[in-house]
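Need residues for this backbone.
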């Protein structure tokens, strides 16, 4: 199974994703890497604080920080993995697309 960061061709072939869906996943990965300051593959509490502020300033979220973390941290280990972030980002992108339709 291809990793999130694999080439677009691999994602399209393996999962039947459109070019737009592949682009959303690549954008999510790039943004995740910006906030994973220690490059250990997860966003910890300190890194999440910066991510949350960025999301809030961009108008992406306005909810309680702990509620946003809970929505991202689906395995409830206190960390946000790349896969958790990408899944959340894709859901957010779909909701945004539905609002435009």
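Answer:
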């Amino acid at each position: 199974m291809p990793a999130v960061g694999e080439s677009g061709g691999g994602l399209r072939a393996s999962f039947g994703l459109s070019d737009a869906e592949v682009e959303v996943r690549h954008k999510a990965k790039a943004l995740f890497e910006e906030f994973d300051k220690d490059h250990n593959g997860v966003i910890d509490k300190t890194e999440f604080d910066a991510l949350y502020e960025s999301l809030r300033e961009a108008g992406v979220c306005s909810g309680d920080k702990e509620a946003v973390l809970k929505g991202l941290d689906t395995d409830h280990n206190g960390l946000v993995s790349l896969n958790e972030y990408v899944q959340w980002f894709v859901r957010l992108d779909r909701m945004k697309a539905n609002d435009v339709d």
